[in-house]
Amino acid sequence: MRNNQLLLLLVFLGFSMSAFSQKKSKVEPKPEFSTITYYKVDTTELKADVFLPSQGQKGKMPLYIHLHGGGFSQGDRTNDYEICRMMTRNGCVAVAMSYTLYMKGKDFGCPGILSEKTKAIQIAVNQLWRATDYFVKNSNSYQIDTTKVFIGGCSAGAETALHAAYWDREWMGMYPEQLSKGFKYAGVLEVSGALMDINLITKENMVPTMMFHGNADRTVPYATASHRYCPCNASGWLMLFGSKTIYDKLTELGGSAVLVTQCGGEHLTMGGIMERNSTLIADFIKNATEGKKMQLHTAEKCLTPSTRKVVCPICE
């Protein structure tokens, strides 16, 4: 009887030690990203999610900062996490940032107010500059190469990134803090974006730019037209120079430019286009960081093309 009790005690202790060992050795999964506050002033607190490559990288890495779309009135930084994941697979530190949605509750269309539309872009641009400054100053914490900072976004985020690259920071700055005068972005990656003035691009300030745009886009023009094709007597009339016009300008100046035209694509058919072109993006980043010129205009078919007839030689 006593032997049986001893045997049961030993079995119990064995199971207990095994369970304790398993519990002790259990490792919590590493978070996919970390959330930081990149700028805080008064009641404004702006956050960003930082994604790091899963494989340990040797040396400094490029940084990519991404802004979501939504007409400066909706959306949030979680919208394009898949783009950030793709960029980390390409060896970049990737950041999804929040910015002030100044047009929330306001009209960003043709009946809107032009000065309000431009102010929305200016606020977002200044906050992108603040995010850039944060990561430049904290580059050692994230193994970032500050000479290889890329920015980009979709729609409103794309417009923000383009203006951040080409606006004069001293003239357009809204915050007392400034990026260093000598700082220059390594490149821009944008989906369905545009500039308000094509003459912002000069031979001296041009940066490698990769663009994705549907040639049937009636919101942000593929080439040159007013925003949302508003009539010129509309209060919200705003001329925009889209991806094709930017591509033509950069190549004319001898700059580095890549344009992927989605044939028949409209503003809302561009989802997943960056992820589908991950290899091309990797080539673009590699060439940009090595100072090699890349000029390429290619096309892909839209699965749900517009019924509008659009003349576009590369799509024929």
Please render the helix and strand layout as text.
Elements: H1 2-25, E1 33-41, E2 44-51, E3 61-67, H2 81-89, E4 93-97, H3 114-137, H4 139-142, E5 144-154, H5 156-166, H6 169-172, E6 187-191, E7 194-195, E8 209-214, E9 224-226, E10 239-242, H7 243-252, E11 257-263, H8 273-276, H9 278-289, E12 295-301
Parallel strand pairs: 3-4, 3-5, 5-6, 6-8, 8-11, 11-12
Antiparallel strand pairs: 1-2, 2-4, 7-10, 9-10
Describe this protein with a few key phrases.
23% strand; 316 residues; Rossmann fold; 12 strands; 32% helix; 9 helices; alpha/beta
Explained architecture:
With 316 residues, this protein is of the alpha/beta class. It has a single domain (31-315), classed as Rossmann fold, CATH 3.40.50. It is built from 9 helices and 12 strands. The chain has helices spanning 2-25, 81-89, 114-137, 139-142, 156-166, 169-172, 243-252, 273-276, 278-289; strands at 33-41, 44-51, 61-67, 93-97, 144-154, 187-191, 194-195, 209-214, 224-226, 239-242, 257-263, 295-301. It has a 9-stranded mixed beta sheet, with helices on both faces. The chain has a 3-stranded antiparallel beta sheet with strand order 7-10-9. The longest helix is centred in the first third of the chain and has 24 residues, at 2-25. The termini are far apart.
